[in-house]
Write a structure and sequence with these properties.
By secondary structure, the protein is an alpha/beta fold. The chain has 20 helices and 9 strands. α2 (35-47) runs antiparallel to α7 (135-148) and α5 crosses α18. It comes from Bosea eneae.
């Protein structure tokens, strides 16, 4: 059960030895919260009214810091990869929306089984909106799960697809840029110290030269690189990614990579030669976000160009001191295909809908919850159904948007159903980590990650409660 009031939360804090008399309460001498308390804080952070939620989110991050769990940048690890210090591993970056606390607990359990810490928790801007799960709430779910499962060390949080809206940019470029800057501020405040900049939406393939096609993309990526470097916390070098081929469209070419990097590096040299550049490049290699769903709701086979991934990654490392290429839209691929990514030297793979599908389709999920998901999707999003799209295709592609109303029913589902679904998720993550070859990486991660504890701002609600 979530905390019923701020008073219950402050009682919890006093119970574990946090002195609330200071304007900046100190957790350094506090005890680890009991499991039931962590569960209660996680539910409060997800479902409670705004003031209690803000205090729970703050308490989770402070308690995590005290336990040695720290949001961190993966930048050093990626530079080590670029320098040839490790290879043959593809970092899974996982979008775990909605039922995030429980799903992330399954991740940390799988990581512990395989002695792995080389994985990323990410959230796209669109997910934060349609799941009504702001970056602070998502980050709190991840950190609470780490605390609950006994994880120690860095936790990599990533902003996925910080994307320029092409139509909005054409209408008012300055307003669209400011909008994305504000989003980045919010993400960094939540501890998302990896950010994927996506201005590939403004690539114009009608222009005469590849360099001109990529120019605005490169200029915008350089602008946001400089912006992030100007606001990143002291001691943290945020890991940045760029995107040059929009997923689901034409496959990226080496010529496009070199054209993008030529303009990007020219722009970065104007902004300051000492500013660290992007450390990875997202490309299109034949996949689709969420997979390509057929009219009957099943998934089509996808032909991934692994040779292209290897070629782009090699160019990234040898010519630009970057870690390599990023593969999107892969969570619905079979294991036989996923296992080829490390051999193709893809440095990172983005995984999302496969986990969502497992949860929504799980035989242990109560039928009443499945019915709620379907009813909500058809009642509230039918206007988004594409021309010629079957009901099965529409439901498969759109049901993820039900998370905004399904979080509470998922928290309240019977314990036996929760346990069964978490066990299946743990197995799925264990398989993913095995295919990505990231087992036995805890030492690699610890030795190539600098931990910087950035204290979150004390919520105004807690200040008021203390004053009262």
């Amino acid at each position: 059960m979530a905390c019923a009031s701020l008073a219950e939360l402050t009682d919890d804090l006093k119970t574990i030895g946090v002195d609330l008399s200071s304007s900046s309460p100190d957790f350094s001498k506090s005890k680890r919260p009991p499991d039931a308390m962590i569960d209660r804080w996680a539910e409060t952070a997800a479902l409670a009214e705004l003031e209690a939620r803000s205090v729970a989110i703050w308490a989770i991050r402070e308690a995590a810091h005290a336990a040695g769990i720290v949001p961190a940048s993966i930048q050093e690890l990626y530079l080590a990869c670029a320098a040839g210090k490790w290879s043959g591993k593809t970092v899974p970056a996982m979008n775990l929306r909605g039922w995030s606390y429980h799903t992330c607990r399954a991740v940390f359990r799988a990581g512990r089984e395989l002695d792995s810490k080389l994985f990323i928790f990410e959230q796209a801007v669109g997910e934060a909106l349609y799941a009504q799960q702001p970056p602070l709430e998502y980050a709190a779910a991840v950190l609470a799960a780490a605390l609950r499962e006994g994880h120690v060390g860095p936790v990599f949080l990533q902003a996925d697809h910080d994307q320029i809206n092409a139509k909005a940019y054409l209408a008012d470029p300055k307003a669209e840029v400011r909008k994305l800057e504000n989003i980045m501020r919010e993400q960094i405040a939540a501890g998302m110290y990896s950010i994927d900049i996506d201005a590939s939406t403004v690539v114009d393939l009608s222009l005469a030269t590849v360099e001109d096609q990529q120019r605005v993309n490169a200029e915008l990526t350089a602008h946001f690189t400089q912006f992030v470097r100007g606001i990143e916390p002291k001691g943290v070098s945020i890991s940045l990614g760029a995107e040059i081929g929009e997923v689901g469209h034409e496959n990226t070419t080496p010529e496009e990579l070199r054209a993008f990097m030529k303009v990007y590096l020219e722009e970065m040299s104007k902004r300051g030669p000492k500013l660290p550049i992007v450390s990875k490049i997202s490309i299109n290699s034949g996949t689709y976000h969420g997979g390509k769903v057929l009219p009957d709701g099943t998934l089509a086979e996808v032909n991934v160009d692994y040779d292209l991934l290897k070629t782009i990654s090699t160019i990234c490392r040898k010519e630009y001191n970057m870690a390599g290429a990023v593969q999107h839209g892969a969570s619905t691929l079979p294991g036989t295909q996923l296992a080829k990514l490390p051999k193709a030297e893809a440095v990172e793979v983005h995984l999302a809908l496969g986990f969502n599908n497992l949860i929504f389709d799980h035989p242990a999920l109560p039928q009443a919850i499945k019915d709620q998901i379907r009813e909500y999707t058809f009642a509230n999003h039918l206007s988004e159904k594409g021309a010629g799209e079957t009901d099965a295709q529409f439901f498969y592609n759109t049901r993820k948007k039900s998370w905004k109303v399904m979080k509470k029913p998922f928290w309240e589902m019977p314990k036996e159903a929760e346990t069964a679904i978490m066990a299946s998720l743990q197995e799925m993550f264990r398989n993913m980590f095995t295919w990505m070859n990231v087992g036995g990486t805890s030492r690699l991660v610890d030795e190539n990650t600098t931990l910087v504890k950035v204290a979150p701002a004390v919520p105004e609600a807690l200040r008021k409660a203390r004053a009262a």
